[in-house]
Amino acid sequence: AGAAAEARFISSAKGKGLFATKNIHKGETVFVERPVVSSQFLWNALYNYRACDHCLRALETAEENAQRLLGKSSLVLPHPEQCSIRKDLHQQCPRCQVTYCSAECRQAALEQYHQVLCLGPSRDDPTHPLNKLQEAWRNMHYPPETSSIMLMARMVATVKQAKDKEWWIKAFSQFCSKTANEEEEVVHKLLGDKFKGQLELLRLLFTEALYDEHLSRWFTPEGFRSLFALVGTNGQGIGTSSLSQWVHACDALDLPMLQREELDAFIDQLYKDIEKESGEFLNCEGSGLYVLQSCCNHSCIPNAETSFPENNFLLHLTALEDIEAGEEICISYLDCCQRERSRHSRNKILRENYLFTCSCPKCLAQADDADVTSDEEEEAEGETDDAELEDEMTDV
């Protein structure tokens, strides 16, 4: 990461924040960050959203991607040369056949966590402890997905494989942690009403699959809940798509006007048809833990945003405004529609999903507004905010 920003401690209430160390121009990339650990969501993988098992790069060509989302194998995309997927580079783990986008990713996974998690010939054995854990998680956490038990499994496997275990334990411990009550709220949010029973079942399966004495605290009821809450609070959604990569590349083509109009109309129609068939689930989706990004506080008028323009887990933080040296860099945890709602509605979403009340300039300016939502907002309250939130988290 460049030296354009650094994390600083603000207060015990707010924890850390990210601050500009030099003047940053609107549109500039503040930093590009690789996650400490990441993982694709389990339902997403089950439904054949094929992604690199390490970096989440989409593995289908843009055409295959569009055909699957449309349910139409005869679709042909124009300008196939604009697709960035290189199938000749893909590699599989020789033991368990999970697929990687490159030899580099296969090697990186093997060195960090895959030796512990490789299922070998037991990949399709439902009685294998890791498969039991994944099956239990899928049965508790339906789409739209916001987290994955495999992110926690990769954290454990990383420490198990590491020569310097303390370094990794310290790396994971720097993510914002919560009090016991707050942890319960986060876990409750992820697991719903039956959370205590479900959490205990997950803990037993997690222990059976992964127990390690170096990490014994993570396997106790309190430690497991803390780990769960850490991933629930700090996990950043990751979205990748070979189709959206192709669309961006097509947008950049220098075409005669008529061809440009035809191509734009084709793309617009394609997205409409896909929405009818697949709804909003367009991307390969997962989540990861990012050290710098997790220090970014929320603002309802953010001066930066995250995206994944490289079609993998590399997170780009981009300035939405000019940011002066010393100024705090904030992102929004809400999507555009949610940001337009009343202060009361915004804070209801933030309280439920992130356990804090916002005091950004916009919220302070609206502090005297009535704590009620308007009629049209009342109607919107009934819709699930999670789906919108998830959408924002994984926009590519």
Automatic annotation (TrEMBL):
Residues 370-396 are annotated as: Disordered. GO terms for biological process: methylation; negative regulation of gene expression, epigenetic; regulation of cell differentiation. It is found in: Cytoplasm. Pfam families: SET. The keyword S-adenosyl-L-methionine applies. PROSITE patterns: SET. It catalyses: L-lysyl(20)-[histone H4] + 3 S-adenosyl-L-methionine = N(6),N(6),N(6)-trimethyl-L-lysyl(20)-[histone H4] + 3 S-adenosyl-L-homocysteine + 3 H(+); L-lysyl-[protein] + 3 S-adenosyl-L-methionine = N(6),N(6),N(6)-trimethyl-L-lysyl-[protein] + 3 S-adenosyl-L-homocysteine + 3 H(+); L-lysyl(36)-[histone H3] + 3 S-adenosyl-L-methionine = N(6),N(6),N(6)-trimethyl-L-lysyl(36)-[histone H3] + 3 S-adenosyl-L-homocysteine + 3 H(+). Residues 5-334 form the SET domain. The keyword Glycoprotein does not apply. Its EC number is 2.1.1.359, 2.1.1.372. GO terms for molecular function: histone H3K36 trimethyltransferase activity; histone H4K20 trimethyltransferase activity; zinc ion binding. GO terms for cellular component: cytoplasm. Keywords: Cytoplasm, Metal-binding, Methyltransferase, S-adenosyl-L-methionine, Transferase, Zinc, Zinc-finger. SUPFAM superfamilies: SET domain. This is Protein-lysine N-trimethyltransferase SMYD5. It comes from Pelecanoides urinatrix. The lineage of its organism: Eukaryota, Metazoa, Chordata, Craniata, Vertebrata.
